[in-house]
Amino acid sequence: MIWRLIESFNDNLPLLLLLAIGLAFAAGGLPPMLERRRRRSIEGALPGFVEALSDGVGAGLGLQEVMSDQSQNQPGTFGALLREALSKSHVTSFDASLASFATSTRSSQVQRVIQLIQTAVEQNSPLQSVLYDLANDYQRLNDLIDKREKDLSGLVMTIVLFICIGLPGLLAVLIGLFAPPSAGYQIDSIATTFSVFFGAASAVAVAICGRMLGRMRAMLWWVPFWTMISMALFNGALLMIGG
To answer: Where is the domain boundary, 145, 168, 201?
Structure first.
């Protein structure tokens, strides 16, 4: 049965092409996922870092001194990037090293915070109060982002699994049981139509899920992969059950 299933895919050139394209695009979709995970780990460490700066400045220490001390205590990517940027401050200015750090994080949150800190220093604003308010504001912002991500991730996964796996699998079982090709039913044209329909429905579902999460371009990389999964599942299940 397995060899027969593989041979059936060999006779379906569009599905084979979609298989190659889907795997290639799925490989291209991994870097955006890894980059987002990296960026969110940096943004998660930002409020605690800013709050520590506020405590240090309130204790009478200078901003550069406090930031250098805190760079040794920050774990993960955030601390590594900060230490690397501050290590170059002896050949460049402190402001230039902060700008380099903000750029290397590739996070709009970090870049905005660094810009606000530099503006507060230039205007002689009460730095401790500014840092404390920034820490609280970005902590609330990250909490809201994490809550939204948690609430939508389950819904998105449900939609993808239902449209891309549940529906084609269910219809393949029904056709295979009640109108099997082995019993003489001519369902080739109907099976092809349903296969194309499930592929298109899967593509639309993945695109909609990407729009819901606010990551449309990142999710578009996975459209060919889930389209291939849906069509291959329908054809394979129909052959195994109805053949």
So the answer is: 145
Integer Cα distance of 52 and 31 in angstroms: 32
Q: What is the pTM of this model?
A: 0.80
Non-local (6+) Cβ contacts of 208 within 8 A are 159
Same domain, 74 and 14: no
Residue 10 scores a pLDDT above 90: no
Integer Cα distance of 20 and 35 in angstroms: 24
Only one residue has tokens 């605690």, namely 48
Q: Are residues 139 and 158 in the same domain?
A: no
Could you tell me if 229 and 161 are in contact, meaning their C-beta atoms sit under 8 angstroms apart? no
Gap between the Cα atoms of 126 and 135, Å rounded: 15
**Alpha carbons 222 and 22: distance in angstroms, whole number:** 7
- Which of 53, 42, 142, 61 is closest to 101 using CA atoms? 42
Q: Whose CA is closest to 114, among 133, 134, 132?
A: 134
Q: Answer yes or no: do 122 and 192 share one domain.
A: no
Which two structure tokens, joined as six digits, stand for 137? Answer: 């504001």
Query: What are the tens digits of pLDDT across the range 65-81?
Result: 888 888 888 888 888 89
Q: How far apart are CA 13 and CA 219, in angstroms?
A: 25
**Boundaries of domain holding 53:** 40-145
User: Are residues 133 and 197 part of one domain?
Assistant: no
CB 21 within 8 A of CB 227: no
